[in-house]
């Protein structure tokens, strides 16, 4: 697991709200609430400057947060953007106000399984949070990596709260924001009368921590890793109490309040590569004070790094997961848009962004190398192809196949389509009940194509009747086709709805669970609209 500047910032903010003298969470207040609004929108899959995904950092913050001592305060958690894409109503109270012990398990489980995917309904979430507070006192901590995306203005909402003398304070922590986004989030803090905290850079993090975390009752070791040029690096390793050598190892990470006892330590840290190793570790001795924070500055060397780019005819394209192999053994994988650290060495990078492109690039990396590998893609087009019944436009909801020179080239998903080379194909509807072939089907050079191809068909509606001749409710039935040699393609159909069938000889069978039915043979010609009656012969009615 990884931690980023966000960890240190939020732990400090939590400690400030819970422990600082004179805060809203003093022991004199009964069951004051700490309410977290957690951003789980799709953009949380983005990276921070230390190559960590935002969601990875935020997950860890929640899990570390629930381990704290809250001195009688109660906790709640709301998230947005984690259930559905494109839905501005996607905000949910995950953990109602409860004691920390009761909240811890649920918060940790949420952190482990949350899957960012949707929009950023900040205003709606704030209004819902205020309702959740009821008459309770407390403060809201909004963690967001982006601005409102649901046509509302949370800044104006905060001004309205101030005018109405709403007692709940809102603290904003921005994660990896650009300048425009940062300005929008700062507006929320200013309107709420709080100080905006930014976790986008080391300098802003230090300034925020100085203002917020003036005091703490916990002994902690803070590790700050940088390069010779002063660039902040995420480091991790172990702290060993003096005189204990291999015993008593304590795992430590930067941007995190490592809980240790006062005393002398030898700290060994480095940058973790995707290979799983610490790169060129550095060891330093330090004495941890018996109160407050002790800060250890460590200068480390940045490992080599790699990023992938995909080009098609010189134009950059969307890629896919890249897997690195070393000596023909899988070393690690990474998302194509991420820059990741790796051990020095020679690698073969493999990726298959679509069926026509099974790509491989070899590259060597030494100390100080930061390279972008280029995958040259074969030009493909994306085609969505629908075979529809003539006369009704009903889709044949089956996967199709593209054939060339007697060889199957690609499967075509009836809804998502296919990526394939431009050219002339035979398009096969391979369902044995309704087989059909479109010959001379042409995929042009156009990048995106959409086809609706009519198939000659008749339409048959199967009707169930009871033994007395009255209408029975619709249910399943089974239809087969006479191939000339045998009956093929037994396929469940829905009675009461038009069923498109290509011209030919067919047989329908009723569901024995409903009653006793005879087999009915029938013919279908193009343009037919038939009704086939399955009448119960008296078995179950």
Question: Which blocks of ≥5 consecutive residues have pLDDT under 50?
Answer: 1-12, 14-29, 201-217
Oligomer: single chain
The CATH architecture of the largest domain can be given as 3-Layer(aba) Sandwich
Content of β-strand: 35-45%
Number of helices: 7
What is the CATH superfamily classification of the largest domain? von Willebrand factor, type A domain
The percentage helix is: 10-25%
Task: Spell out the key features of this protein.
extended, 16% helix, alpha+beta, Immunoglobulin-like, 5 domains, four-stranded mixed beta sheet, 541 residues
Description:
- It is a single chain.
- The protein is 16% helix and 42% strand.
- The chain has a six-stranded mixed beta sheet with strand order 3-2-1-4-5-6, with helices on both faces. Strands 7, 8, 11 and 14 form a four-stranded mixed beta sheet that branches. Strands 10-9-12-13 form a four-stranded antiparallel beta sheet, with no helix packed on it.
- Mean pLDDT is 84; it is low at 1-12, 14-29 and 201-217.
- With 541 residues, it is of the alpha+beta class.
- The protein has five domains: 5-212, von Willebrand factor, type A domain (Rossmann fold), CATH 3.40.50.410; 220-299, Sandwich (Immunoglobulin-like); 305-376, Immunoglobulin-like; 381-455, Carboxypeptidase-like, regulatory domain (Immunoglobulin-like), CATH 2.60.40; 458-535, Sandwich (Immunoglobulin-like).
């Amino acid at each position: 697991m990884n931690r980023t500047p966000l960890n240190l910032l939020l732990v400090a903010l939590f400690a400030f709200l819970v422990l600082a003298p004179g805060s809203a969470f003093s022991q004199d207040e009964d069951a004051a609430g700490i309410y977290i609004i957690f951003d789980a929108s799709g953009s949380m899959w983005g990276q921070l400057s230390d190559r960590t995904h935002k969601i990875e950092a935020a997950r860890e913050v929640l899990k570390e947060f629930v381990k704290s001592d809250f001195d009688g305060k109660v906790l709640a958690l709301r998230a947005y953007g984690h259930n559905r894409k494109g839905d501005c109503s996607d905000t949910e109270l995950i953990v109602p106000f409860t004691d920390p012990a009761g909240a811890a398990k649920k918060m940790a489980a949420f952190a482990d399984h949350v899957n960012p995917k949707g929009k950023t309904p900040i205003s709606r979430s704030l209004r819902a949070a205020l309702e959740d507070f009821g008459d309770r006192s407390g403060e809201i901590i909004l963690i967001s990596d982006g601005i409102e995306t649901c046509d509302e203005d949370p800044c104006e909402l905060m001004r309205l709260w101030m005018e109405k003398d709403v007692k709940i304070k809102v603290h904003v922590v921005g994660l990896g924001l650009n300048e425009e986004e940062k300005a929008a989030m700062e507006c929320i803090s200013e309107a709420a009368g709080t100080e905006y905290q930014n976790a986008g850079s080391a300098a802003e993090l230090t300034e925020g921590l100085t203002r917020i975390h003036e005091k703490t009752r916990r002994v902690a070791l803070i590790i700050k890793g940088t390069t010779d040029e002063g660039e902040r690096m995420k480091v991790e390793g172990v702290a060993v109490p003096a005189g204990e050598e291999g015993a008593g190892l304590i795992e430590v990470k930067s941007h995190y309040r490592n809980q240790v006892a006062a005393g002398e330590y030898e700290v060994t840290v480095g940058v973790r590569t995707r290979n799983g190793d610490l790169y060129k570790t550095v060891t330093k001795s330090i004495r941890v004070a018996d109160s407050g924070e002790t800060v250890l500055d460590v200068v480390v060397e940045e490992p080599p790094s790699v990023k992938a780019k995909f080009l098609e005819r010189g134009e950059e394209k969307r890629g896919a997961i890249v897997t690195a192999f070393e000596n023909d053994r899988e070393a690690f994988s990474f998302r194509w848009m991420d820059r990741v650290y790796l051990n020095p060495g020679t690698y073969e990078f493999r990726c298959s962004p679509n069926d026509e492109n099974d790509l491989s690039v070899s590259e060597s990396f030494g100390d100080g190398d930061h390279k972008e590998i280029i995958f040259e893609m074969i030009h493909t087009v994306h085609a969505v192809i629908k075979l529809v019944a003539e006369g009704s436009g009903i889709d044949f909801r089956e996967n199709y196949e593209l054939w060339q020179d007697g060889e199957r080239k690609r499967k075509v998903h009836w809804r998502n389509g296919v990526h394939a080379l431009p050219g002339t194909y035979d398009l096969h509807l391979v369902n044995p009940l309704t087989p059909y072939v479109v010959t001379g089907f042409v995929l042009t050079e156009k990048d995106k194509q959409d086809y609706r191809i009519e198939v000659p068909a008749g339409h048959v509606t199967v009707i169930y009747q009871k033994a007395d001749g009255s209408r029975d409710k619709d249910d399943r039935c089974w239809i087969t086709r006479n191939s000339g040699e045998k009956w093929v393609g037994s396929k469940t159909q829905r009675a009461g709805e038009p069923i498109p069938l290509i011209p030919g000889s067919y047989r329908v069978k009723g569901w024995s669970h409903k009653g006793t039915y005879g087999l009915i043979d029938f013919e279908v010609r193009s343009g037919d609209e038939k009704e086939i009656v399955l009448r119960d012969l008296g078995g179950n009615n």
